[in-house]
Write a structure and sequence with these properties.
By secondary structure, the chain is an alpha/beta fold. Helices cover 31% and strands 22% of the residues.
Amino acid sequence: MIVNLPLCALETPAKRVLVVGGGDGGVLRELCRHPSLERVDIAEIDEGVIKASKEFLPHMAKGFSDPRVRVHVGDGLQFVKDAPEGHYDAIIVDSSDPVGPAAVLFERPFYECMHRAIRPGGVVCTQGESIWLHLDIIKEVTSMCRGIFQGGAVSYAYTTIPTYPSGQIGFVLCTKSRDGKPLEPNEPRQPAPPMDLSSGPLRYYTPELHRAAFVLPAFAAKVLAEGTS
């Protein structure tokens, strides 16, 4: 979902995508299902995560062997700062919780750099915590993003993950204004990627689930709506 929500929301198929974090390779594996992609950069601060995943989780790490992938071991914030303006169609942030080294990936300077690095009509999708445990953090982040992605759209979506605390995890999706119009990420505009012979068919994402992921329980919708005023 962290891959297909942003990529399928785009008006034109993505060609260049940046992944920040995601050293286990799961995001890369799902990205590599998309035939339109010409280049995927991944900026991962901990090379040990990449090595461990390749050794112990080869089915998840198979995306590292895709020729379109370029691995950059180092600080994700600095990599985004150094990216050319408007270079990426999408940036996906597969980070841990906002403590320790990952805390900067939830702060305003990082989101400002991502806004600069994506093209008009591009999209950012970040790990967005759980509405059951971190609603205050989600409200703070989405409110901050609305001040950065002015003229675009900022939305929260979620999915079910049984192994996560509360059984859910969410995503903050931000789109950059194009021609003064927002691109709403809750509408799928691209088809689901075709079956990958090495990874098998998609088992979760559908266009119907894409739309449903943005429909929040009343209590969460109310709190996040308060951040728009």
